[in-house]
Amino acid sequence: MDSLPDQLLWDILVRINKPVDRNSLSLTCKSLHRMEGEQREFLRVGCGLDTENEALTSLFKRFSNLKKVDIVYSGWMSKLGKQLDDCGLNILSKHCPSLTDLTLTSCTVITDMGLSHLAACSNLTVLKLVFTPRITSCGILSLAMGCKNLTTLHLISCVNVSSVEWLEYLGKANTLEDLLIKNCRAIGEGDLMKLGPRWQKLKRLQFEVDTNYRYMKVRDRLTVDRWQRQWIPCDNMEELSLVNCIISPGRGLACLFSECKALLKLHLDMCIGVRDCDIVSLVQTSSNLRSIYLRIPLDHSLPLSMNHPLRLTDESLKAIARWCSKLESVTISFSDGEFPAFSSFTPSEILNVVQTCPVRVLSLDHVYSFNDLGMEALCSAHFLETLELVRCQEVTDGGLQHVCHFPRLSVLKLSKCLGVTDDGLKPFIGLDKLALLSVEDCPQISSRGVQGAARSVSYRQDLTWMC
User: Fold this and answer.
1) Is the pLDDT of residue 90 over 60?
2) At what angle do helices 165-173 and 137-146 cross, to 10 degrees?
3) 358 close to 383: Cβ distance less than 8 angstroms
4) Is 33 exposed, middle or buried, given 0-12, 13-18 or 19+ CB atoms closer than 10 A?
5) CB 404 within 8 A of CB 423
6) Which fold has domain 1-39?
7) Which is nearest to 372 in space by CA: 353, 396, 351, 349?
8) CA–CA separation, 183 vs 178, rounded Å?
9) How confident is residue 230, by pLDDT bands cut at 50, 70 and 90?
10) Three-class secondary structure of residue 30 per DSSP
């Protein structure tokens, strides 16, 4: 092999995609070993990594053209050896000048000093920190100041990161396109305003508050009042995801709803304070909306103004049906403990959305008011390809049998539905109607009952949810 031309060896390696095969091939000769190191652009390391300086230097020197590195210590225990520390990140930054994408997961010993070393990686555009408890705002700021081209920042369970200068700095830099903040206790909804008027390039915003700390957050009213008077230019926002957020009427995050002209995907999960007028304003502005996820909270105990209705109603669905001519995916869910009398949406308006818009995927969770008549009405949904029913207890075998008459449905998913049995699936056996049937935790459907009901079948039974 050593006698073959370098170009031929290079072409051989290019055609091998599996890392395990490339590793084996690199051991056959020195030339392949060297070239495999030069070609490698992605490396994932973690438990078992030799963290001695000489070993790390040798490792990163060999893979000097790395563009993406994942350092993952999920499930780490002390008996598995030492974790990569600040010194290790320094070695990484010195020997991998092409690094553009870095993920640190459960790296519990890395501190702000380590992030300051990464500031030397001038090409870094993507940084994802998942449970790095010793990192603070100072480390984020130092890295942002060094990495001028940072476009993606994900912070997940970074409990000691607060919103001080780093958000303001990223706002001034005007490079950020993808921001995800999840379960970071020290960062609240109002803190996002520190991005200032530099929302223009932001394409994706995902903000999730830790539900265990939702009631304990201190909210700066002055900050929220300032945001009320501030124009937020988010013309390029394509994805907006808010989870467990408190949305004050006309303030804070509510200001986004009337500005997202390019929005394609909306995800609102257990957000308290969202009103019909917010949804109406959003769908009138976002004519290209493709996906809507609405999970409605039951808890009304938070101190919001009682002059505004806290529950979305059919008015929102009417606006969606009228303005979202490109809508393809709809998910409607109610929180645990919901009863039919408290349902925000009527089945007729849910069906109106599906029948009016080109909806291909419909998921209903805890929508107790949806029944067999609703299933029959879905026969006129000409675009529907995937239907998911979760805890829709009013749907019975009679309603399930209408699926045979759905024009384009090929995927059916049932989960925790008490009213359906094996008898409801019998009409599908041998019909070749469904490409996929998924049944999970439905007590009256057996593994035998799903056999032959679709070309591909997935079955799971765990009834602990009923206890």
Assistant:
1) yes
2) 20
3) yes
4) middle
5) no
6) Monooxygenase (1.20.1280)
7) 396
8) 17
9) low
10) helix
Q: Is the four-CA dihedral 143, 144, 145, 150 of positive or negative sign?
A: positive
Q: What angle do CA 37, 39, 45 make, to 5 degrees?
A: 60
Neighbours of 100 (CB within 10 A): 19
The domains of the chain are located at 1-39
The highest-confidence range among 8-12, 298-302, 448-452, by mean pLDDT, is 448-452
Q: Where are the alpha helices (DSSP H) in 293-358?
A: 314-323, 347-356
Which residue, 314, 362, 366, 315, is CA-closest to 340?
A: 366
Q: At what angle do helices 30-39 and 19-26 cross, to 10 degrees?
A: 140
Q: What is the rounded distance in angstroms from the CA atom of residue 174 to the CA atom of residue 148?
A: 10
Burial class, 464, CB count within 10 angstroms (exposed 0-12 / middle 13-18 / buried 19+) = exposed
Nearest to 300 by CA among 338, 333, 266: 338
Residue partners of 183: CB distance under 8 A and separation at least 6: 156, 157, 208, 209, 210
Q: Which residue has the tokens 């009304």?
A: 300
Confidence of residue 461 (pLDDT cuts 50, 70, 90): very high
Beta strand pairing call for 204-208 and 178-182: parallel
Look at residues 65, 118, 125 and name the one whose alpha carbon lies nearest to residue 91.
Answer: 118
Quick one: pLDDT band at residue 337, thresholds 50, 70, 90? low
Amino acid 248: pLDDT: 78
Report how far apart, in Å, the C-alpha atoms of 6 and of each of 13, 29, 30, 34 are.
Answer: 11, 12, 11, 11
The per-residue pLDDT for 306 is: 44
**pLDDT tens-digit series, residues 241-270:** 999 888 877 777 888 888 889 999 999 998
CB contact burial 59-98 (16+ within 10 A = b; e otherwise): bbebbeebbebebbbeebeeeeeebbebebbbbbbebbee
Q: Which of 297-301, 363-367, 370-374, 407-411 has the lowest mean pLDDT?
A: 297-301
What's the confidence (pLDDT) of residue 38? 77
Q: Which of 117, 120, 144, 140 shows the shortest CA–CA distance to 129?
A: 140
Q: Does residue 263 contact residue 236 with C-beta atoms inside 8 Å?
A: no
What are the DSSP calls for 256-301, one per residue?
GGGT-TT--EEEEES-BT--HHHHHHHHHH-TT--EEEEEE-----
**DSSP classification of residue 76:** -
- In this prediction the pTM is 0.88
The residue with greater pLDDT, 19 or 309, is: 19
